[in-house]
Amino acid sequence: MISLDIGMSRLLTVFALTFAAVLTSCQVPSSISLDSGGMADPILAAAIRIPVGLEAPTWESVKPKSNIPGWDRQIDATYFSIQTSKKVIAITFDDGPHGVNTPRLLDMLKKRKIKATFYVVGDMMKNTYAPPIMRRMVAEGHEVGNHTVTHANLSRQSDVGLRKELQVAHDMILEMTGVAPRTMRPPGGAIKNDQKKLMLKEFGYPTIMWSVDPEDWKKPGVSVVTSRLLNGVKPGGILLVHDLHKSSVDAMPATLDALLSRGYKFVTVTELIMMDESGAD
């Protein structure tokens, strides 16, 4: 054959121009007219009207969607921390709400414009002081997570027992705040892999662990709690504290101020998960 059929030639040209446009990182005209013998080729001109550069969809818009209730991106079953290039962390408070310590803590967070995540226990929410504190958490931009009803060791629970621990606490949180919890933390971190899968599938809960544990529940002293948190913190980390204990809350002003001075930004656990870069190309 001396020459390609003109139709095939035009198709090959379309492919070459399309491929080149996709590869470029520069902004290019959204349409180009190719002149052949003094006349624009409408087929080629239409074919290369593709979004590229600033007009192209971002990678965020084409990330796979999750089939997990409440999530619009793929999520993992467990998080100890996330991978991120940003200096962000999530600070979490377990076992409340407490009638005195939690409001004090909320005052500290509000003063510093810090968002936190509270993993609350159903039995604690039964106290008469709990509803206004819970509503205040949400009103001031904090996240409320599920920490079961009785603070039970979930690894020893049947599937029926697990569902009850989570569902009752879930419903209590929703009733008091108007917002359903999106994550859970197993008391003491005791959980089995098949339970994690069940919770993710049925409740949409990823299991939230932690990257820094100051063991403040042992009440080692205010300065020790602060030191352990500051020594262990890294971008993308999840800090564990208990607002049930006065000494833990007493350690927060120095801890929070030091973290802010280091340039850390505080986000909720759900916000942190959405910033995970581990699956990015």
What features would you describe in this structure?
- By secondary structure, this protein is of the alpha/beta class.
- The protein has two domains: about 5-55, no CATH class; about 80-275, TIM Barrel, CATH 3.20.20.
- Helices cover about 40% and strands about 10% of the residues.
- The protein has helices at about 5-25, 40-45, 100-110, 120-125, 130-140, 160-175, 195-205, 220-230, 245-250, 250-260, 270-275, and strands at about 35, 40, 80, 90-95, 115-120, 145, 205-210, 240, 265.
- The strands form three sheets. Strands 4, 5, 6, 8 and 9 form a five-stranded parallel beta sheet that branches. Strands 1-2 form a two-stranded antiparallel sheet.
- β1 and β2 form a beta hairpin.
Task: Give a quick set of tags describing it.
TIM Barrel; two-stranded antiparallel sheet; 11 helices; 40% helix
Query: How many β-strand stretches?
Result: 9
Using the CA coordinates, give the radius of gyration. 26 Å
Fraction of residues in helix:
25-40%
The CATH class of the largest domain, by name, is Alpha Beta
List the secondary-structure elements in sequence, H or E: HEEHEEHEHHEHHEHEHHEH
Q: Number of domains in the coordinates?
A: 2
User: Strand content of the residues, in percent?
Assistant: 5-15%
Pick out the low-confidence regions.
1-6, 11-62
Given the structure, what is the number of helices? 11
CATH superfamily of the largest domain: Glycoside hydrolase/deacetylase
Mean pLDDT: 83
Largest sheet: 5 strands, parallel
Which overall shape is indicated by the principal axes computed on the Cα atoms? globular
